[in-house]
Fold Quinone oxidoreductase family protein.
Amino acid sequence: MTKAIRLYEHGGPEVFVWEDIDLPAPGRSEVRLKHSAVGLNYIDVYHRTGLYPTGEPPVTIGLEGAGTVQALGDGVDDLEVGMRVAYASPPIGSYAEERNMPADRLVRLPEAIDDQTAAAMMLQGMTVQYLIRRTYRVKAGETVLFHAAAGGVGLIACQWLKALGVQVIGTVGSEEKAELARAHGCAHTINYREEDVVDRVKELTHGVGVPVVYDSIGKETFERSLDCLQPMGMMVSFGNASGPVEDFNLGMLASRGSLYVTRPSLMTYTAKRADLVASANELFEVVQSGAVKIEINQSYPLSETAQAHRDLEDRKTTGSTVLLP
């Protein structure tokens, strides 16, 4: 027997149940993994509430974790028992002490990266990797707008972008978060509670706007983000913290200067094994170089996942958060 957080219905954090589960032997091409740390991400909220489908209950959610291989299923020949590995990938199920996981979704951890750091950075770090290296490949000297600059993805992005010679304008909700973002390489912060984001972006860019906006907020910021773009700029909508973006008239893109809009996901960008490994390796390199430091600003026992979700949704968290089995 092992313990896991399970959902029998969708809803608020109170629907989480911490209980014993039976875990079968790993199937073909699977390994049994004992978690030492589990990552907390906003996509977990979408799974908990039912915004994103999870399958029939009871289910265990969570997409990120790190730990040690305990057993190998048939057909697994590139991993070994005792190997330290991490992942940020479906199938959901990381909110557990132990789980079975497809071997081709796991990456071996370098010795220099500990398990908690890995669990805190895999999903957020590989998200930043595809956003700034593939979705819109930034160039040195550019200025970009990044919403939620003091969040887990935001702090990694601010550091990585600065290392690439890119100036970041970041939105935040408080002066405390503004200071945190600036300390991690954000050149200019905008407190969206006190300042007009569009006016401030135009001021900082001398009326030109930015070539790309990275927006994980969704409904509340979508249209205003478009207004921050220069002609033929790209709106990258990669999250829904304030709710899903509502339907909109494509003519809005033409009237604002022939804009582009994309709704990417990490799962698409890492669907191929080669892309997953390349993304993880680039993340490992930038962290090991010291250019990006992973800030684990909160940790909770896995059994207290409900409180972790409350704090995440109330925007009380900064940087990365881990759940500890």
User: Anything to note?
Assistant: The longest helix spans residues 115-135. The chain has ten helices and 15 strands. The mean pLDDT is 96.
